[in-house]
Amino acid sequence: SNQKKLSENINVGKYISGYKSSSVRLKRLRHFINSFGNVNDEAYGLLLQELSTTLDGEMYMELVKSSIIVPNEQHEERINNEKKRRLNEAESLLSTAKSSTNMESIRRGHMEIGDIYYEFGVYDEALKSYQRTRDYFGKNEHNYECYIKSAICNLSQKQYSLGEYSLAKIDIPLTPIMELQCNVLKGYFSLCNGKFHQAAKIFIDIDGV
Predict the structure, then answer these.
(1) Residues 6+ apart with CB under 8 A from 32
(2) What stretches of 115-159 adopt beta strand conformation (E)?
(3) pLDDT band at 43 (very low <50, low <70, confident <90, very high)
(4) C-alpha to C-alpha distance for 7 and 2, rounded to whole angstroms
(5) What value, to the nearest 5°, has the Cα angle with vertex 193 and ends 191 and 199?
(6) Range scoring the smallest mean pLDDT among 57-61, 147-151, 161-165, 172-176
(7) Cα 23 to Cα 135: distance, rounded to the nearest angstrom
(8) What are the contacts of 154-161 at 24+ separation with CB within 8 A?
(9) Which residues, other chains included, contact 134 with Cβ-Cβ below 8 Å and sequence gap of 6+?
(10) What H or E segment, with its residue span, contains residue 138?
(11) Average pLDDT, stretch 56-70?
C-alpha cells in the first residue's frame, strides 16, 4: 500500500536519534505507529527496545491500552519493584531529614520523591511532592524549581491551564536560561489552550533570542 511504502521510506532510527529523552523517543515512535500502523518493522522494533529501558509505567499502560503492544507481566513487575525500591530509599532519607529538622534536606527529600514519581509516570504524586517543598524554600531558586517542575507535571497530565497557573507562581528574577524555559512552556500551554496568536508571539520572541 502507499502507506506502507511511505513509512518504509522514512529512516525511523535517524528520525528519533535527535531526541535525548527516552520518554520523548517513545512518544515519537508511538505517534509514528499511530499514524502508519504496525507496517514498519523498524519502528516497532525500536519502540520495544526503548520500552525495555524505560521505567515510565504510564507510557507502558498507554501503549497497552492502545493495542500497540501486548501486556508483559515481567516488565510490569520490573517497573513496580524498581519504583518500590527507590521510593523506600528516598522516603527513608526524608524521614531522617525530618528527624534532624534540616529544612534544606527536607526540601530535597520531597523533590527527590517527586522526581522518582515523575520518572515512573505517576504525575499526580510527583506534583504533590513538588508542592510540599513550598514550606521549605530557602533560596529564590527553590521557588523556580518547585513551580517549573509543577508546570512540567501539568504538561504531562495535559492540564494546560493549571500549567499556566504554575508558571505564574514563579516570582523571582529569572536568569536567561530560566526565562527561556518558562517561555517555551508558556508558548506550548497557549497553543494547547487555543490561544494561537499569543503562542505565535511567544515562539517568535524565543526564536529571536
Answers:
(1) 7, 10, 12, 15, 40, 43
(2) none
(3) confident
(4) 9
(5) 30
(6) 57-61
(7) 31
(8) 154/127, 155/185, 155/188, 155/189, 156/118, 156/121, 156/123, 157/123, 157/124, 157/127, 158/192, 160/188, 160/189, 160/192, 160/193, 161/189, 161/193
(9) 146
(10) none
(11) 82
Q: Which set of grid coordinates corresponds to residue 19?
A: 531526541
C-alpha cell at 185: 512552556
160: cell is 494546560
Largest CA distance in the chain: 66
Evaluate whether 40 touches 46 at the Cβ level (below 8 Å): no
Contact 68, 47 (CB under 8 A): yes
Residue 62, all three cell numbers: 498507554
Are 185 and 167 in contact, with CB atoms under 8 Å apart? Answer: yes
Run of H or E including 86: helix 73-100
Q: Residue 200's closest CA among 32, 16, 188?
A: 188
